[in-house]
Amino acid sequence: MSNQFPSPPENPHGNPYANPQAGAPQGAPQAYPQGAPQAGLPTYGGPVQDPAHAYGYGYGPMAPQTMPGVVRATQIVLWVLGGLTLLGVIGIAAMGDAATAGAAMGVSICLLVSCGFAFAFKNAGNGIRVTCIVLMSVQIALGLGGLASGNPGGFLGLLGSIATVILLSQSAAGAWFKRPRTLG
């Protein structure tokens, strides 16, 4: 019979699982060279590693390390709207119309709470983002109600609330608030 592979060397010990070099005298040629693979047999080079996954960090895209522009823009919009609202309420109260100042403060309470949450955007989780989206959605409803009743003063707050919902709903903002954080 012709066989393209050479037959294994005879084992003098009779054990087919024994090391073929165990009984060979010193200086005798080895039956299986250690460094070279046998001809005709496939070789296995080990698992192929992607450099990004080499250190165990490669489970999807990397989380952003700096605050994205959409989150920073949301902070600025909320701080400006909160400041303008407080200035307006203080101005109305200084003119002696406490009832109107209280009504303006009550209508803008969602905006003011979101403005306070904006200070925590650097370290906050996704719950703050969702809460701000819900509060600004309620603020949009309040602004539309004010416009329907003929109060044009809520128009700027309405536009700012719409901008906040749009900015916080973007994927970059979601990635920022869902990023892994270290405690401490």
Q: How does this model look, in words?
A:
With 184 residues, the protein is mainly alpha-helical. It is 49% helix and 0% strand. The protein has helices at 69-94, 98-107, 109-118, 126-148, 155-168, 171-177. Helix 3 (109-118) packs antiparallel against helix 4 and helix 4 (126-148) crosses helix 6 (171-177). The radius of gyration is 36 Å and the shape is rod-shaped. The model has no long low-confidence stretch (mean pLDDT 79).
Summarize the structure.
The chain has 184 residues and is mostly helical. It contains 6 helices and no strands.
* Share of residues in helices: 40-55%
Residue-averaged pLDDT, rounded? Answer: 79
Q: Strand content of the residues, in percent?
A: under 5%
Low-confidence stretches: none
End-to-end separation in angstroms reads 73 Å
User: Which structural class do the helices and strands define?
Assistant: mainly alpha
Which terms summarize this structure?
mainly alpha, 0% strand, single chain, 6 helices, 184 residues
